Queue: 3 jobs
Job 1
Amino acid sequence: MSFPRPFYRWRPHPWHGLEVGPNPPALVHAYVEISPFDLVKYEVDKETGYLRVDRPQRTSSQHPTLYGFIPRTYCGERVRGLMKGAKRGDGDPLDICVVSERPIARAEVIVNARVVGGLPMLDHGEADDKIVAVLENDPVWGGVESIDRMPEALVKRLRHYFMTYKSMPGEPADVSIGETYDQNHAKKVIRAAIEDYEAEFGGE
């Protein structure tokens, strides 16, 4: 029996085994960990590549978009250098939020995401950028080129979610989020995360 190429005898690790995307840093792959319908925070297990239950959401806030990471990226020294006040990168793959018109209710899927901007998040002194993108060829969002063209309410919801998703009710969180940045800066962050990955894990 012959198999198509490429053929994977075993499932690729979503962080290390998938490609960054069709045309990075403008068009990237997003591996989805959480959908807008999840009341539990899932996170990829770095050893096995399967989704692990991180914790139930501690507040009533739900993520307003698909949420995951860009494969073969790593938030290290180069990413830290782009974030004012950061002491280090967070040591994880680069996070990405993807907006789509149609509800996508399941996780562990790969989507093509066109980058439009980002949120500079500082979490306990660590650079923890949130890249914002739209689903490629989306009939409603596909024409959006900049985060400034997105509804202000959606950006506020993203900001609120990330300001609260780790906090316990009544307890302050050591998290800050600056002003949104544009597509050009988002591309710089993605390039830095790709270079950080190659420095940490080696190239092809």
Job 2
Amino acid sequence: MAKRLFITGGTGYLGGALIRLAAGRYEIGASYLSQPPLALQPIAWPPLDVRDPQAVRVALACFRPDLVIHTAFVQYGPDLLAITAHGSGHVATAAADLGARMIHMSSDVIFDGERTGSYTEDDRPDPISAYGAAKAAAEGLVAAAHPAAAIVRTSLIYGFEPIDRQTQFALEIAAGHRTDRLFSDEYRCPIYVDDLAAALLELAERDYAGVLNIAGAERVSRYELGTLIVRALGHDPARIGAGLSADSPTRRPRNCALDSGRARSLLHTRLRGLREVLAERSLP
């Protein structure tokens, strides 16, 4: 009998990739809140508000998963802490009560970004944004409620089918529909969505507990990310201008590079860098 996988935020970008890759390997349940599924795949689709601990307990108890991958979050707004932080704790508590394996998705923006090198799993969060603070709080709540959970810190997620939000943003600048600039002094380790989803499903079959960095192999600026992908998609990036995060009126973490060496030694899934993904995608 196939194992049962429950994905929170199933209609999100990562959730969709997980469903595609897990189909046929697991019995899948996936939740949504404000974005209902466009197509009714042969999976369970319960609506779920992770702010409600009782609703979380009921949804997971009804599905009885062997594995929970928690991807649901919001990045801003009045419910930032309630959903991104406390909601993660509710999911972790319900998963632990059922004895389910849990993978919680965290972020590289839990750091202040002032380091010159890369952050490892041993580095403590030091957020400077509200979203980073919510993600850092979520890590603590998950670890306390479900000590056996894996807490995955990742970076910007990109992909092509469908195109991700930040790539769409860069395409709109390139087309002259926006006048925004992309920061040339803000660095991340972007990861291809299918690489991340495959790594998470592989990690699900291991008993790793605690923090694990899973990000792309290449450190690039937001400007590099935008221009390289726009060019790879056949568009002219000439209209994309470079800006400085240091000049932003809101303080932002500038270098959130993650060291994913531990994940590369643990997993068989290749965590490719941006240029490698784009080069392989262009092959006939």
Job 3
Amino acid sequence: MGDGNTDADIVIIGEAPGKKEDEQGLPFIGAAGKFLNEMLASVNMNRSDVYITNIVKYRPPDNRDPLPAEKSAFWPYLVRQLDVIRPHIVVTLGRHSMEYFLPGTKISEVHGQPQSVTIGDSELVVVPLYHPAAALYNGSLRQTLKDDFMKLPKIIKVLQNEKENK
């Protein structure tokens, strides 16, 4: 279902497990996971500081994109995970996880920008980012993703200050 700290300030959500992830039952352990680990290290964090999961909990056949019905079927599980963890920030990686939080939004227009959303009874701050795999295949996205990732500590700090001043 996921991996990491269930008391994390950040929950990172991908789309679905790849082959290695499916085999080992852990999210983001292949090439995209290594890049994610590098980005976490760049902001002085590691995997044990965050919780990582996917919107779809199993690997779609032939590694195809998850279908809308698959994402809908797993949405209640993801909402429950977020209710339990209560993160300050939800980081969506790629358009498949982003579109459930920000329907009708284009990732190219909102990447790296915090967005307030209401899911059930919870107010969440969602930060949509490009998927690490996209940055591996498209070198021009690599620096964009790194730059967006570097914004996360500042966003957390602002949210913590707002929370303390309430």
